[in-house]
Amino acid sequence: MEYVIEMLNIRKEFPGIVANDNITLQLEKGEIHALLGENGAGKSTLMNVLFGLYQPEQGEIKVKGKPVKITDPNIANDLGIGMVHQHFMLVDTFTVTENIILGKETTKSGVIDIKTAEKDVREISERYGLKVDPSAKISDISVGMQQRVEILKTLYRGAEILIFDEPTAVLTPQEIKELIQIMKTLIKEGKSIILITHKLKEIMEVCDRVTVIRKGKGIGTVSVSETNPNELASLMVGREVVFSTEKTEASPKQEVLQISGLKVKDSRGVEAVRGLDLDVRAGEIVGIAGVDGNGQSELIEAITGLRKTSAGTVKLNGKEIQNLSPRKITNSGLAHIPQDRHKHGLVLDFPIGENMVLQTYNERPFSKNGILNFKNIYNKARTLIKEFDVRTPSEYTLARSLSGGNQQKAIIAREVDRDPDILIAAQPTRGLDVGAIEFIHKRLIEQRDNGKGVLLISFELDEIMNVSDRIAVIYEGEIVAVVDPKQTTEQQLGLLMAGSGRKEAEEKANV
Amino acid sequence: MSSRFTNILIPVIAVFLGVLAGTIIMLVSGYNPIAGYSALWNGAFGDIYYIGEVVRQFTPYILAGLAVAFAFRTGLFNIGVEGQLIVGWLAAVWVGVSFEELPKIIHLPLAVLAAAAAGALWGFIPGFLKAKFRVHEVIVTIMLNYVALHVTNSIIRNVITDGKERTPNVAESASLRSPFFESITDYSRLHWGILIALACAIIMWFLLEKTTRGFELRAVGYNQHASHYAGMNVNTNIILSMVISGAFAGLAGAMEALGTFGFASIKGGFTGVGFDGIAVALLGGNTAIGVVLAALLFGGLKIGALNMPLESGVPNELVDIIIALIIFFVASSYIIRWFIERISKKGVK
Ligand SMILES: Nc1ncnc2c1ncn2[C@@H]1O[C@H](COP(=O)(O)OP(=O)(O)OP(=O)(O)O)[C@@H](O)[C@H]1O
Ligand SMILES: [Mg+2]
Q: pLDDT, tens digit, for every residue of A290-346?
């Protein structure tokens, strides 16, 4: 079998850390090749080397058997390599077509020929089953659509080899199904794909072979047909991993969070939360299940003080907190793991240690009389980094330099450590490896067992089903059903989320 | 290579490239670069008098540089340092000429604080407009520069004097002039203000790096969303940042008002010190210590340049060109960074 890409004995160092230590990856033509490893194992780094964003200290790259030097992304493009990054790189104010042709514009006597470009885009999008509206603005389309635009961008540039860095982390289950279909079509059209994902199910479903790396070192490549999720997990972590989260029966007490008649408008002024009622009691985990765009984001933002409400009340320990400032809400006993870690969760240009006290920097022992005490701040950071296994060269490393999953772990560490009466966890395990997910679930349950309330928002039905004590289904800005996970199947939940079973939902809620 | 080292190396290389380009320009236009540069050096450090003048020029540059750097570190671009300096200048003179019988221990601090307050007010306006209405601070500060220029001219002519071109000198009790400094520098105009400027550099460093307020200001500068999420008041921090920045700029005006000149006169145009502050901050990497070093360089170049035509016949406009080139190279630090990375990689192999 001929290899389209060979990365041989690649080594890449960053200050204080060897991110890639002698890694070999060989991609066959027409295969989907998974790249698997824990958070911070060096997957994104390896792919950035292939795409020309980083230069390796050692090692060789061959494209179709020929040794090449990929010193910048343009060379990668010319060699037929395209990459869809973990965080998208699109111009928000441009249309889909403009983004796709950016840097490769078709011109007619010096003027951009948008008509032809749109036609080309439509043609490619039909050929690969990537439905998009070529004239829509990026800021108006969903994350799943934006990802399609990124894929189209690489195809428009004639990519033969596509790199996907955690494409499914930001997608809803439905969008994931569509993406898998798209990947299959791409393979049929003769493309080859490298896929980074933490979801073993996806690897088993679409991939042909998988290369595993652990702490920067290549562990080996196996055929998917000859392996199973358990083996993959232990290859990756270096020990046995237990998948099912053990937990005892919840013993809920008084209500800590009471939401009634809540109405919230979204950024365009459309009512996204429409008279929502929900209670979370001390000592229980309530999961919110719903299709993306049914008001989840607005609900969280309203509870946490990031968005104004237009009607209704939110009570924390009996006191109204709606429309208070985030600081006041935080101080009344709420912590929030935000959905978007780069936008809200971290100051990327601060050291990770200082991010650990982002809310508490003005409290003792981190400061006194307005003067920061860096010794105490960094001591705290060291403790949290150790306890939550945040993999970073040091506590002084900028948050920006941490791998995506380790950034997430740092945020979770900070929020859980404040030991809040109510913890709002929005997609807390997004982008985490299986080991880390297991750990985080344990911490959420521990929080519950200590008599605190947890509100979990997730698009992963598995997560909602396994971790929650009660599931509230959100549909068009209202809670349409509250069900017991032990007496509900995924199918039933799916129906409720689609809004089709309001009647049954009401009946079930009364059980 | 550590990023800290690279950050220091870049401005040094930029200065070197600027000097190199100046050499080429001198050669091309038929001047002797060695004579030119030694005239520059002698004009800045060749004589104790010149050294005194360099330090005097250094003083407002530090403060103007700090003003720009402070705003920049908190995510704001203060182009209005020039205007804030001008109103600070006027305020200091106004207080300086208005009282005659005050003891120095009250009068001088009062005049200095008036300058800081005036600059702070001039910074508050764009800060407030940005916080409340999201009006971009660059536009507002540029316009306020002109407002400052013409309003102060009118006050000098119509309020402080009766249609005169300049105010009387400030009272001795409000003056920063230092007979001691003058005597040890062969009667240059060096004054006590340098101590204020250096103290401000320390204040800026301390405020930004060591206090909870500085933590907030920097956080807001990097990521407003995360700061809001973390419970900081984004708008308050934006306004505060512009106010502090403006106060530094106002103090730069006080240096001219109470130290160098001792009066205010009708200005036909801007002093330029406020705009040079942008370059000083850029060259100094927006850090307090960097600003001090860059201000020294600018002060030296400005004063030394005066000697170039006399001693070597090189027009002192050339110094402006060199300064412009240095700024150009600092601004294109990306290119320099790229070179450093290439070279250091070769070194590894
Ligand atoms: N630009 C950088 N500067 C310094 N260190 C970096 C940089 N990029 C990555 N690292 C470090 O290299 C290691 C590997 O990071 P990488 O992003 O490749 O991990 P990953 O396998 O993609 O993890 P994740 O699954 O969490 O995304 C991490 O320890 C990270 O801190
Ligand atoms: Mg990654």
A: 988 899 999 999 999 999 999 999 999 999 999 999 999 999 999 999 988 889 999
B331 at A interface, C-beta within 8 A: no
Taking only the tens place, the pLDDT of each residue in B197-224 is 999 999 999 999 999 999 999 999 999 9
Segments forming the whole domain that contains residue B207 = 62-293
- Cβ of residue B228 closer than 8 Å to a chain A Cβ: yes
A92, A132 contact by CB (below 8 A): no
Q: What is the arithmetic mean of pLDDT over A259-283?
A: 92
In a domain, B55, yes or no: no
- CB within 8 Å: B228 and A336: no
What is d(CA A395, CA B255) in angstroms, rounded to the nearest whole number? 42
Question: What average pLDDT does the structure give for chain B?
Answer: 90
Task: Confirm or reject: Cβ of A407 under 6 Å from ligand 1.
Answer: no
Domain ranges of chain A: 5-237, 255-343+421-509
| Ligand with smallest separation from the Cα of A408 | 1
Asked, colleague to colleague, whether A5-237 and A255-343+421-509 share their fold, the answer is yes
CB proximity B212 to A under 8 Å: yes
Whether the per-residue pLDDT at A511 is higher than 70: the answer is: no
Centroid of ligand 2 to alpha carbon of A146 (angstroms): 19
The top-scoring range by mean pLDDT among A142-156, A238-252, A405-419, B321-335 is A405-419
Q: From A345, which residue of chain B is nearest by alpha-carbon distance?
A: B226
Q: Which tokens hold the place of B338?
A: 């790229």
Burial, B56: exposed, middle or buried (Cβ in 10 Å; 0-12, 13-18, 19+)?
buried
Determine whether the interchain pair B229/A325 forms a contact, defined as Cβ–Cβ distance below 8 Å: no
On whether the pTM is more than 0.80, the answer is: yes
Instruction: Judge whether B346 lies within some domain.
Output: no
Is B230 within the bounds of a domain? yes
Ligand 1 centre to CA of A161 (Å) is 23
Interface test with A, best of B205, B215, B234, B345 (most A CBs within 10 A): B215
Residue A89: which of A146, A170, A15 has the closest Cα?
Answer: A146
User: Which of 3.30.2350.10, 2.170.190.11, 3.40.50.10420, 3.40.50.300 would CATH assign to domain A255-343+421-509?
Assistant: 3.40.50.300
Task: Say yes or no for a CB contact (<8 Å) between B226 and A15.
Answer: no
What SS3 string covers B80-129? CHHHHHHHHHHHHHHHHHHCCCCCHHHHHHHHHHHHHHHHHHHHHHHHHH
B260 vs A460: CA distance, rounded Å: 69
Q: How many domains does chain B have?
A: 1
Nearest listed ligand to the Cα of residue A430: 1
For residue A38, the surrounding DSSP H or E stretch is none
- Could you report the predicted ipTM of this complex, rounded to two decimals? 0.85
Checking if the pLDDT of B349 tops 50, the result is no
Task: Report how far residue B266's alpha carbon sits from residue B149's, in angstroms, rounded to the nearest whole number.
Answer: 9
How remote is the CA of residue A390 from the centroid of ligand 1, in Å? 12
Is B202 part of any domain?
Answer: yes
Question: What does the pLDDT read at residue B6?
Answer: 75
d(CA A490, CA A460): 11
pLDDT of res. A163: 94
Q: Whose C-alpha lies nearest to ligand 1, atom 28? A: A40
Which parts of A90-176 are beta strand (E)? 107-108, 111-112, 161-165
The third-level CATH classification (topology) of the domain covering A5-237 is Rossmann fold (3.40.50)
B233 touches chain A (CB under 8 A): yes
Q: Is the peptide bond before A428 cis (omega within 30 degrees of 0)?
A: no
